Structure formats: C-alpha cells, structure tokens
Amino acid sequence: MNTLKHVDTNMANLISDLQTMIRQPSVSAKNEGIEECATLVSKILKKSGIPSEILRLKKGVAPLVYGEIKSKQNSSKTLMFYNHYDVQPAEPFDLWDDPPFSGKRKGNKIFGRGATDDKGELITRIKAVEACLKTTGDVPCNIKFVIEGEEETGSAHIEEYLKKYKKKFSCDGVIWEFGYVDSENRPIIGLGMKGLLFVELSVTESNIDAHSSLAALIKNPAWRLIEALKTLRDSDGKILIKDWYKEVTAFSKKDLEIIRNEPFDETVFKNEFGIKSFLGNKSGINAKKALVGGATCNIAGFVSGYTGDGAKTVLPGNALVKIDFRLVPKMDPKKQIMRLKNHLKSKGFSDVKMKIYHGEAAARTDSSDPFVSQVKDAADKVFGKSILNVSNAGTGPMFPFVDILKAPCISIGSTYMFSKIHSPNEFARVDLLKKTTKCICLIMQNFGKT
Ligand SMILES: [Zn+2]
C-alpha cells in the first residue's frame, strides 16, 4: 500500500491514540500528570514503531521524551520533530461544553485541552512515521523526536537539554511544534519566531499613598514613570534607545517577495479589533513588514494609585509598568538589557528600578534554504495551496535549536486558526489532522531525497 493511502486507512487509530493522550492531563503550570504523560507518549511512540526513551536533566525538571529511528536507505540526513506533551491549564472549567480532558469526538472535531496544542500536532508526526514504516518498512531519512514537557510554561530548560544532548539531537532540519492553517484551509509555513524581552520598571517615591493635596510637595511616581517611558519610543513605535537596532539587517530580496505574496486583509483585521488605523499609519507592505520583522516596545500593564469606582484624591506612593519588547533576528537579549539600562541612566532615570523576567532571542530560517522548498512542495501537494511566512509575530524557543544544533527550523501543522487553543472547548479538526499527517510524510520523502 502507498504511504499516503495508509494515512487514510489508519485515521481511526490516529484518533484513538490522540484521544488517549488528551485523556491524560499534563498541565505543566500545576505539575499535573507530567510524569504519567511522558510515559504514555513514550509508549505511543514505541507502539508506532519508533524506539523511545525518557531523558532527564535534574529533579524538578519535566522529563523529555525522545524517539529515534534510523533510515536503512538514507542515513545521511536527519529530520527532527520538536513538540511538547504538556498543555495549558483547562480553567475556567465551567465554560467547557464537555469535560476538558474528554477527548470527545463530534463530527469533524475532537475536543479537549491539548487536542490541537500540541497533542494533535504531535500525533500527525508520529502517524506519518508509522505510515512510512508500515508501507515501506523504512523511513526516507533518519528521524528524531524531541518532545518536551515545559513549553506552556516558557520552555525553561529546553536550552539545557539541547546543550546536554547536543550530539544525540544533532540533525539537519527541524519541523516546529505547530503550524497554522487559515480560514481558507491554507497552511502557513513559518520560517521564524520573534524574540522577547520582558521587564518591569517601577518608581517608589513615598512610603505610603498620601492625600493628593500634598502633590504640591511630594513628587508623583506615576508622572515620573511616564516621563521615563516617553523616552523609550516615539509615537510611531520607533524605539529610541541608543543602538537598539544596531545589529539588525534588512530583509533579503527573497524575504520581501514572500512578504509581498503573503495575504493580509487590512480591513478584516481592523474590523476584527475595532480599530481605524495602524500604528504610525502603516499600510500595505509596511504593515506586513512590521508584523513579521518589526521590533516592538509594548506596555503590557501599568499600575499606580486608585482606579476603582468614583473619585479618590490620592497621591500614589509607587508606580509600576510591565513592558514586553519583541526582538528581531541579530538582537541579543543580554545586549538589549544593557542598552535599556544605559538609556535610563543617561536620560537621568537612575531612580527607575528594573526587574528582568525573560529574555529570548529571535530565530529565522533563511528563505532560500532548500528545506523551505521541500516543505512548501509537500504542503502544496496535500493542501492545494500554502502560504510562506518569513516570521511569526510571536515568540517561541526556536533560537536555541538554530544556535546549538545549527539546523533550520520550519513550522507547519494542523492548527486551525480558530481552534480555541489555550481557551475552553479547544478542538482539533480531523480533516486537518489527516492532511497534515500526509504532508509530513511528503516532507520526509523530499528531505530524504536530497
Ligand atoms: Zn500552547
């Protein structure tokens, strides 16, 4: 039997294995079912013909499920699947139509926390490898599975795992853990992720909140913080910190062509959010460029004084702001932190305290890498059409893979854009699970051929 045909006939098995995974809660934020789920995933790999073991770093760190199968016909190329077996908390429980870990199927949908993110994506990779093994007795290239258990809490140890098992994990390409499919059933092939720097800035002036009549004498920390914030960015979004963009390089010709071809309906987007215009009045290609490759400085939250009902004449004792900076390739989070610190100091804001929560670099696969056309060809064959995307506007731990393993990473998958991931009633679409599994089969074949 042909490999793609096998995917068609094996769907009941794919669905039941996915349901088994969904029914095992694995909430990393609460350390609920993590060990149990790692064991279960390892068993499903083995059952599907993929030798598997559980790797550990140290106590208190979620185990990593590893799978590896060597190709008999072509052992020179290795493709890695990076996924995660942990899920987001299912709360609020009362908004679910069925229990969150039911794995219930209703028509074309399978419901449950993790149905898509990321157990649904993982099962497409496993079943694609199984289909190759069952129909040809081999895989077209060497395959490695790296399935972590801390993605939903920020992948705190993936870098350490990659460093410790650098040799074991060595590969020539990585298929990322997710990939979106748009409302016209076109998979979006993502070539990168932005980085992130999350900081908290605060100013404390007096020991206590005071009567606001004293604003004649006591400095207001909220005003102070606003003055500091005003120096970080202009009203069009350009970051004013010295050397912030120093290492950033321009888009390549090929990148620009991809950006130009990527569909983006400004009107639909604006209507969705109820907004009239974009930051800096951007439009057309400039709006698209900003989304895939623009650095941002975003105020995520600002707290000070009284914001309850009615009036309260109070002079707050302190003010606090949380800021996320999205970083683009070549920006080193450590350098950017120093630049931010130096900026505040040089502008006379040494009294502004800074706390750093998270720093992660951006990663992007070169759009002219042959891996890109191998994935695109597979996606076009199965889905009829696909869209290339230079970089996701969000952040994921892609940088350590590119940096440590020196392998290009591409995201492609079955995540329907409106599949409610991280929300109540998350579901996976059976038709997309099937297509993605076939697409992964073709990616392995294309990858093995070269
Ligand atoms: Zn997620």
From TrEMBL:
<keyword id="KW-0378">Hydrolase</keyword>
<protein>
    <submittedName>
        <fullName>Peptidase M20</fullName>
    </submittedName>
</protein>
<feature type="domain" description="Peptidase M20 dimerisation">
    <location>
        <begin position="194"/>
        <end position="348"/>
    </location>
</feature>
<dbReference type="InterPro" id="IPR051458">
    <property type="entry name" value="Cyt/Met_Dipeptidase"/>
</dbReference>
<dbReference type="InterPro" id="IPR002933">
    <property type="entry name" value="Peptidase_M20"/>
</dbReference>
<dbReference type="Pfam" id="PF01546">
    <property type="entry name" value="Peptidase_M20"/>
</dbReference>
<keyword id="KW-0479">Metal-binding</keyword>
<dbReference type="GO" id="GO:0006508">
    <property type="term" value="P:proteolysis"/>
</dbReference>
<dbReference type="Pfam" id="PF07687">
    <property type="entry name" value="M20_dimer"/>
</dbReference>
<keyword id="KW-0645">Protease</keyword>
<dbReference type="GO" id="GO:0008233">
    <property type="term" value="F:peptidase activity"/>
</dbReference>
<dbReference type="GO" id="GO:0046872">
    <property type="term" value="F:metal ion binding"/>
</dbReference>
<dbReference type="InterPro" id="IPR011650">
    <property type="entry name" value="Peptidase_M20_dimer"/>
</dbReference>
